[in-house]
Design goal:
The protein is mainly alpha-helical and 111 residues long. Helices cover 77% and strands 0% of the residues. The radius of gyration is 21 Å and the shape is elongated.
Length: 111
């Protein structure tokens, strides 16, 4: 996952350089056809990719598996990011309950 995050960040930096170059070129030719909007779109896309990688890592899934899960969740009207955060929270609380039997999270697990 860390490798993918570095790739996304590297891609964002390269796209930023490309956008700056396009902005300069547009200025030379007097073209102002939304270079700022293109730059903002690229930035949002990079941020979304990073959130995607973080969500996949949070539930211990590969990016491909998380993409399938996110697609299925969206098909039934759910929010994959919310599911990933909830799963991460549940996993943390179960770990705490197993490590500390006196934890408030351990009470529901006692038989």
């Amino acid at each position: 996952m860390r490798g993918h995050k570095a790739e996304v960040e590297g891609l964002g930096a390269k796209l930023g350089e490309l956008t700056d170059g396009a902005r300069e070129l547009a200025g030379v030719f007097g073209i102002g056809f939304g270079i700022e909007q293109i730059a903002e779109g690229i930035s949002r896309l990079a941020e979304r990719g990073e959130r995607f990688e973080n969500s996949a890592a949070a539930i211990g899934a590969t990016a491909g598996d998380y993409a399938k899960l996110a697609g299925a969740i969206q098909l039934v009207g759910g929010n994959a990011e919310l599911v990933a955060r909830s799963t991460e929270l549940i996993a943390r609380n179960i770990s705490e309950a197993l490590a500390n039997p006196n934890s408030p999270w351990a009470t529901p697990l006692t038989i």
